[in-house]
Input
Amino acid sequence: MAIHRYTRTAVVLHWVMALLIVVNVTLALAVDSLPDAWQRPVIDTHKSIGITVLGLVLLRLLWRWGHPPPPLPAAYARWEQRLSHAAHALFYLLMLALPLSGWLHDSAWKLADRYPMRWFGLFEWPRIGFMTALPADEKAHWHDLLGNIHTALAYGLYALLALHIAGALKHQWLDRQAQLQRMSL
Output
């Protein structure tokens, strides 16, 4: 049985993004339990990783446009194929919406002018101008709303990630299909 693999670039982007997303999830879930002195650096790292994921997902979409993914194994049931396509579309949507909602949320932060957003401490990353220009009461409203949206999207990503991993392991171990080899170097 031939294994239809993703391109090397697609594999590297997949695993780098997966690692960054898992690190970002860990940072987001751990930040409140950390000492106060660690919270700002952890939040800043979370923001830097989010912006990096946004750039990588755009790169990944451009790559995918020119390099379509390999076909799903013929042994997949029709519902599994549809579910796989829907899950991947939802992943791309979430990988775009999460960093954008976080960036908008951060741009509406009342202390944004006192704490510049720096990408891994290397250079200042701009905030979204129309959000920073809002009056204080509107900014507070949007900061709260976008924080809630960002959190809800994150929990959606956690659930989708769990289903994605479960599906890959099901195909690999229960169905005995070379699923993991499709995304290996």
Q: What stands out?
A: The chain has a mean pLDDT of 93. The first strand starts at residue 118 and ends at 119. The chain has five helices and two strands. The chain has one domain: 8-183.
